[in-house]
Design brief:
Two copies of one chain form a homodimer.
Chain A lengths: L7 E9 L3 H14 L12 H7 L2 E9 L2 E9 L7 H9 L8 E7 L2 H4 L8 H9 L6 E6 L6 H13 L4 E4 L11 H19 L4 E3 L9 H11 L4 E3 L1 H4 L1 H9 L7 E3 L14 E2 L1 H11 L4 E5 L9 H10 L11 E5 L7 H8 L4 E3 L10 H14 L1
Helix pairs in contact in A: 6-7, 6-14, 7-8, 11-12
């Protein structure tokens, strides 16, 4: 006889359906698929039916051709860890078209199992000594440069006053640019620039790596003087990011890169909403800043998506602190005022390639900083 | 000055476009996005342009509204590991609608970095002592049963002659069903049944777990007498599966569960083809058997998808051995002859809930086995 705590967490699913009856049938399927995954009529035990089965709490029309269904699950089904929580939220239902995980509404019981972001907005601001304005970020690239060449770029970017200089997420541990060489030289270059400017630029190397290498690289980066870390949880695993965030030996801010996660958000009827994935789930996984494509750049997120992600980075989630949205993907200096109007001051503005269009990289960075300080 | 090996691997992308000109423009974008992710016109160095840039090798019309573009990348860009290989193949392009990763065509240089499946079809057959016929599998469920109750089911399923008895992928380490208790009791129950029947049923517990727990659970399962392991790489990370497959201290067959990976395949214009994801990438990640929803069950894969996955489990990939396709998701005994006609003998037939519809579970399993042996 099961005796669970009674605590339940909720999820909202957007169900593509012509009418409420069809939507209700799909919602009932989700409640079973995400829990017992077994013919409901064969389960006679009332404790399992009442406690383990997902429970459809409400269904409401959300638009012409979709409904929003709220389903609750017993806290205990999620097993207290991120992989199993994601499994209950969306594991098998991800395989069915027309069901999108729209938002998480986690209980205290579940949230208490997650430490979440170690720094968040306030922590990252404190680390950088930048209390109010938007933060400036850029990436070391292109792939193909040597560690020395990238370090030279890092020096100039820091000299120009960029707050966060991250590796491009495509810089891994390639034979032409070894992780350790790059991190060592770039961290040193940024420190040298900081001594000259009196500023506190942070270098964030990419530690996305095979299992068993990731923690080692993160510790190496830490010792080499990195001030934050970049990780692509779509490549390394969301729980690998969570483990990194929880690791007290590392204790650096984490930047979440969306590589490979796009397929969850490109189809409006399937997958996970940008709000839930790049906002809520990024925070659960311990991100301090969440990078995503801003609309009107090289990618095709809508303005609505971008705003919803920003909301997801700050909406109340128990004790999990708000994190920075990092709109990126083809941004230019001319869009800075618009970006600041759109996101407000709690944003990291990430401009990559466009910084290199000017005649003088340091000067262009200073102009970027001037624009942000003026805003 | 870069001096790379010259080895290049290829990927085929399905690009949604009305005409060849538009498709060619998208292909050119992919070649840049997946490598330098930087304005191409700002790169003057011929070594980077010639070696690091992705190279569009060919474009061909694939249907009324899409084209197949083959793009090659320098072996070295993939850094020799799975996360970075996936990043080069599809990291940022996953964020752009209308681009689907259709197939991998990996070079010897890249393939040599992957051990792949440890057992594959031949190894799993040898382990089970079943040389020719399709294999039988089922899952322990529903969630909510105690370890004792699940062990009792495992005993009956093994007594009935099922080859592979796996945990349902929703059985993790919940307070009402602890991993260690379940694995210990279920492995013991299956061993007891094997002593009685003289058969060699294998129990495959679910080891999907947080980073840092996964290897420990796998070793525990190994010592408790599990004969294979179930893992959901969508939850634990694809590279976590690869690491498990490579771990000589464990050395058990791995069953790949598709939880959370559905969003890569539900939208026909985006994501990764079922062939590449559940066939090729599953093998790269070390799966010995790849579970996916068979058409006409609870899910909505097409017959064409299922056939393509089966092809992906066996098509030549350097030294990576062929693995079993495992069609599942609402299968019933009445569909066994059809499934065998569809997949041939090299298939694992996974029937879950439907086995419990009969009056006598052991008898129903024997009927399942009889049907397969008769085919």
């Amino acid at each position: 006889m099961l005796e669970l705590s009674g605590g339940r967490f909720r999820a909202v699913y957007r169900i593509a359906a012509p009418g409420e009856e069809e939507a209700a049938a799909v919602a009932a399927e989700i409640a079973i698929e995400q829990t017992i995954e077994y013919p409901a009529d064969l389960v006679s035990r009332e404790d399992i039916r009442g406690q383990i089965f997902g429970r459809v709490e409400s269904i409401a029309r959300g638009g012409d051709d979709f409904f929003d269904a709220t389903i609750s699950y017993a806290d205990e089904t999620a097993g207290g860890d991120l992989p199993q929580l994601l499994n209950v939220l969306y594991g098998n239902s991800s395989l069915k078209p027309g069901i999108r995980l729209e938002r998480l509404d986690l209980s205290e019981g579940v949230l208490s199992r997650f430490r979440g972001p170690r720094f968040g907005r306030a922590g990252l601001r404190a680390l950088l000594g930048v209390p109010g304005r938007p933060l400036l970020a850029t990436a070391l690239k292109p792939m193909g440069l040597s560690p020395q060449e990238l370090a030279c770029l890092a020096y100039q970017l820091a000299l120009g006053g960029i707050d966060l200089v991250k590796d491009d997420h495509g810089l891994a541990d390639q034979p032409f640019c070894r992780f350790e060489d790059r991190v060592h030289l770039a961290a040193e270059a940024v420190a040298r620039a900081n001594r000259e400017t009196g500023l506190g630029t942070i270098y964030a190397p990419n530690v996305t790596a095979p299992v068993g290498e990731l923690a080692r690289r993160a510790r190496f980066a830490c010792e080499a003087g990195a001030g934050a870390l970049l990780i692509s949880p779509g490549l390394a695993g969301l729980d690998a990011m969570r483990a990194l965030a929880d690791d007290d030996r590392i204790a650096l801010p984490l930047l979440f890169h969306p590589a490979l996660l796009g397929s969850f958000v490109t189809c409006p009827e399937d997958g996970i909403s940008p709000f839930a994935l790049f906002g809520q789930i990024a925070r659960l996984a311990g991100a301090d800043a969440s990078i995503f494509p801003h609309y009107g750049g090289r990618f095709s997120f809508s303005a609505e998506h971008c705003l919803s992600i920003a909301r997801g980075t700050e909406e109340a989630m128990g004790g999990l602190v708000p994190i920075f949205p990092v709109p990126a993907g083809g941004m230019t200096l001319s869009r800075v005022p618009e970006l600041v109007r759109f996101y407000g001051r709690d944003v990291v503005l990430l401009i990559g390639g466009a910084l290199h269009r000017g005649r003088d990289l340091v000067e262009t960075c200073r102009r970027f900083r001037g624009l942000v300080e003026a805003g």
